C-alpha cells in the first residue's frame, strides 16, 4: 500500500472554491423485509438512515465503515440503481431523486460505478470489446471502426493490451478484470465515479496498482470520486475528505488531515487506532470495541453507536446527535462536542 | 483485504479466447452418448421429413385385400388391421409426432421464457401477478381440458393445430417458474447493475445480459419439454384423444395395441412405433444430459 503516491494537494486547495457536484440531503434507503404467508412487508432494514453530504467537482470523498453499514446501498442509491425511501439527490443542482425511464437513462451518462466484485461485475457471455463498447452504443451513434478505436483507446488508458479486445472476462486476473470494469465506467466520460470497494477483493500486491490507476485517471478525465472502502488505510491515500459511516448514519466527516490528526467521534477513534502502524514510536493504544454491530432492522434509539461506545453517557440512548460543524470543515455527530 | 485468497481459486485453466458457449460446444462434442443420440435423432428427423420420397404407399387408404399381413415382401414391416403399410405409417407418424413435439416445445419455451424473465426481472407486483397466472395454468386439469376442447372443436378446425395450441397453452408454467428462479438469482450479480448504469433499457438488460446467462437452463429445459411433449402426444393418441386417426402419429399407431389380439399375436403393428418412440425419447434425454453437463463449468470432460 505504501507505493501509493500521496495526493499532490492541488485539487484540495482549489476544492474549496469549486462548485458542488453532488448534494445528498437526508437520504434514506430502507429494504423491505417480507414475512408471513401473505408476503407482506413486516419490517425494514434501515440500510441508509438519514445521510447528508456534498461532493465538490474534482474532489475525492472517501466513505468508510464496517461491512454492512450501508456503504454499497448509499452508492447504489446515489446512482439511482436503488430507489431512495426519502431524501434528495442533487446532481449538478438537478434533482435526480424521482426521475425515471428514459430521463433517468439519459442522466446515467454522467455518473458511473466501479463495482466491488471483479468476477460478478462482468457479464461472462460478453467479450471485453462488447463490455466496454456497450455504454458507447447506448449513448452515441458511432461507426464500427470509431467504436473499436475508442474501445482500444480506453483499454490502453486502463493499462490493458489491445489483445484483450477479443477475450472474455474469465481469461483475466482479478486486477485486470477490475481494469475492464474501470474502462467500462470511463467509456461515457462521466463526471462522477462511485468506486465501491474497488480493490478489497484484490490481491494486496495489485491493490496499489489499481489505486494508482484510479488516481491517474482522475487527473486525465477530470473525475470526481466517491470512494468507498471498509478500511481506513486504503481511503487515506485516495481521499481529500473522508466520511465515516456507522449503521446507516454518517457519524463524522472531515478533511483527510483533520480526521487523522484529530478524530473526534469515538467510533472514528476506534477505527484509526486499529490501523496497523509500522513505526513503533507512533503506535497508539488500540481501542477495542465491545459487542457486535446492532441489526439495521432494529437500530438502537438515540445515538446509533451508544451500545458500543466507550464514552457513552445516559442521554446518548435518548437523543440522536445531529452532524455538527465543530471545526471548519470538520463535522461530527456526538453529544460530546 | 481479507477475501483475497478465495478469488484465486475461481481462476480455472481454460482455453484461450473462448466464449462460455464455445467451451460448452466443445464439451458436448466430446460426449459420445450425447453425440450418438444426436445422430440418431437427426436420422429420425431426416427420414420423417423425406418420407414421401422414401415410400410411395398410401397412408390412409384402407385395403381389405391385405389386412394384418406379416412383415416381408412388399410390406417391410407388414400391414395393420386396415391393410395399411406399417413402415409408411411409421415414417409419416414420425413427421406428426416430431412436428407436434417441436412446435409445442418452441411455443412452450417462448411463453415460459417471456413470462419467467419478465416476472423475475421486475419482481414485485408484476412478478406476483404473472406467477399467480402461472399457478392457475399449472393447476389446470390438462387431460380433461384437451379432451373437452378437442371434442368441441372437432371438425371445425384442423385437429392437429388445435392439439398443438392446447398442449402449448397449458404446458409453459413449469418453464416459466424455472426461468424466473434462474433470473432472480442471476440478476443479483453486479454486472446487471452495471448494465443498468451504462444506460441499457430493461428489455436490453433481459435479452442481452440475463437470457444469455440462463440460456443453458433454457436449452436443457427445452430438451426435457420436447421429450415430455412427444410422450404427451403419444399418450393422448393412445387414448384416442390426440391427432385424428386419419393422420398417423406414433401415438395413435400405438392405440392399435389396445386390442388384445393385436397386442398378443400381431406385434409388428405396435412394436415399431413403441420402439422408435422409446429410442427417440431416450436420445432426447441423453442429449439433454449432455447439454447439462456441457454447460456445467465444474465438469471437465
Ligand atoms: N437487497 C437487500 N435486501 C435486504 N437487505 C439488504 C439488501 N442489500 C443489503 N442489505 C442489508 O443492508 C445493510 C447494508 O448493506 P450494504 O449497503 O451492502 O453494506 P456495505 O456495503 O457497507 O457492506 C446490511 O445490513 C445488509 O444486510
Ligand atoms: S453520542 Fe454518546 S454514544 Fe454516541 S458517540 Fe457520542 S458519546 Fe458515544
Ligand atoms: Mg458493500
Question: Would you mind describing this structure in some detail?
Answer:
The complex is a heterodimer of chains A (337) and B (301). Chain A is of the alpha/beta class and 337 residues long. Chain A has a single domain (8-33, 42-332), classed as Rossmann fold, CATH 3.40.50.300. Chain A is 29% helix and 24% strand. Chain A is built from 10 helices and 12 strands. In chain A, the strands form 2 sheets. Chain A has an 8-stranded mixed β-sheet, sandwiched between helices. Chain A has a 4-stranded antiparallel β-sheet with strand order 2-1-4-5. In chain A, strand 9 (241-246) and strand 10 form a beta hairpin. In chain A, helix 5 (144-157) packs across helix 6 and helix 6 packs parallel to helix 7 (204-221). The two termini of chain A are 34 Å apart. The model of chain A is unreliable at 5-16 (pLDDT under 50). With 301 residues, chain B is mainly α. Chain B has a single domain, classed as Orthogonal Bundle (MetI-like fold). Chain B is 71% helix and 0% strand. In chain B, helix 3 packs across helix 5 (86-122), helix 7 packs antiparallel against helix 8 and helix 9 (173-186) packs antiparallel against helix 11. Chain B is globular. Classes of the chains: A alpha/beta (337), B mainly alpha (301). The interface between A and B is large, with 45 and 30 residues. Adenosine-5'-diphosphate (ADP) binds at residues 31, 45, 47, 65, 67-73, 296 of chain A.
Ordered list of secondary-structure elements with their pairings:
The complex is a heterodimer of chains A (337) and B (301).
Chain A: H1 10-15, E1 20-35, E2 40-56, E3 60-64, H2 71-78, E4 86-91, E5 94-95, H3 101-107, E6 111-114, H4 128-139, H5 144-157, H6 174-186, E7 192-196, H7 204-221, E8 224-229, H8 232-238, E9 241-246, E10 249-255, H9 256-261, H10 266-273, E11 324-327, E12 330-332
Parallel strand pairs in A: 3-8, 3-9, 6-7, 7-8
Antiparallel strand pairs in A: 1-2, 1-4, 4-5, 9-10, 10-12, 11-12
Chain B: H1 5-10, H2 20-29, H3 32-49, H4 51-54, H5 86-122, H6 124-138, H7 142-153, H8 159-171, H9 173-186, H10 190-197, H11 202-239, H12 250-254, H13 260-265, H14 267-295
Helix pairs in contact in B: 2-14, 3-5, 3-14, 5-6, 5-8, 5-9, 5-11, 5-14, 6-9, 7-8, 9-11, 10-11, 11-14
The structure holds adenosine-5'-diphosphate, iron/sulfur cluster and magnesium ion.
Adenosine-5'-diphosphate binds at residues 31, 45, 47, 65, 67-73, 296 of chain A.
